[in-house]
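Encode chain A's predicted structure.
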Amino acid sequence: MSPPTVLVVDDDADFRASILALCAREDFATAEAHTLEEAKGVAKRIRPDVILLDLVLPDGRGLDLLDEGDLAERTEFVVMTGYADTESAIAALREGALDYLPKPVDRPRLQSILANVARTRVLKSEVSELRAELRDVGRFGAIIGRSESMQRVYDLISRVAPTESTVFVTGESGTGKELVAETIHRLSRRRAKPFLALNCGAVSPNLIESELFGHEKGSFTGADRRRIGYFEEASGGTLFLDEVTEMPVDLQATLLRVLETGSITRVGATSPISVDVRVVAASNRDPKEALEQGALREDLLYRLNVFPIELPPLRERGQDVELLSRFFLESVNRRDGAAKRLSDAAVRRLNEIPWPGNVRELKNAIERAAILADEVIGPDLLPAANPVAENPSESQRSLLTVRVGSAIDEVERRLILATLEELGGDKKRAAEVLGISLKTLYNRLNVYEAQAQASASGPTQDTAK
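Encoded structure for chain A:
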């Protein structure tokens, strides 16, 4: 295989020469340009693997190169600029740059970027071959599906897995965001290293910093020994941060700093520790809405959202419902030593159900039906296709009336408790319907219980006085 190619675009001839020399020592074939127009012509001719470019060029913005045909799809961009500030860094990452290097350039960091690009080039070839083999099989890593919407997801995974870019996976609860993260890891150069997952919404806000970065003995009450955090444990591998929009906003600033510097500091420590971790984040909330609601920092969003992947809900995946159902049933049969099967009527019912809980709900429904069935699973063992239509009183019970001017906290309390009652006390399902994490739901319920206990004990305390 020929050596990887780098194009250095900068109007400073001396600076350009020094960077070209560094790239040559890293075994890259090199090319150069000093204007935007010249860079466009050179890039079209040599199809570089990576472009190192100044943000401000004599005839335009360096990032305008990303608009050149399919260049952005096959080439990594690294911005180098003497006009370094947070706003320009966010803008560069938002437009698709892999990284942002202030001048004078940190040479070890640039060498690390070039090494990653070289390794990525080999991986891209391997993943492309694998992608072609699996396209018609209906499986991609641990993900099942042949639908066009999932084929698009596979294409995105194929492109980003061999790179070092952070990924932000969005989609409704139960669509398989962790499976996507695992597949990205397995198809990356990090596949021999750890893959760890942390649900940010399921950890107490008081403990999540320690979970992520670890702590020293005695750093807080109960810290009776040193603890290694997720970032250290995952070093060399991939860390999946699920429900990242549930992370406390003040801690998001710390996470951003870790992503930018590649180092963490344990709680109670003073010395930073270098870590090499690829982050894949996920949320079942629209990140833009979380941004507007103040639940997500803008600078962190653009750092995480370098490569977004949106997972389609199951109701939009057509015949994938049947494919997944048969796969889940085969798994149950193998586990239980059974040979149960789906009737044609059951398959029709499966395709009629809207599956608000997506793939997770489908899997649970198939397992329950397999347990109840003798040999053949019929439609009677599956959820109703339209439970609201079959039971009109459901729509009446689903209404909640609030008085204009009510306190937001009280409206939230009534909505949560009413939803929980509507779903028969199923907290997991209630959290999914409300669009919040299970941990958030438990926290709210604990507050309501404490308030109720305080209210009940108040008169007794007054009497005692």
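The CA atoms of residues 167 and 307 lie 5 Å apart.
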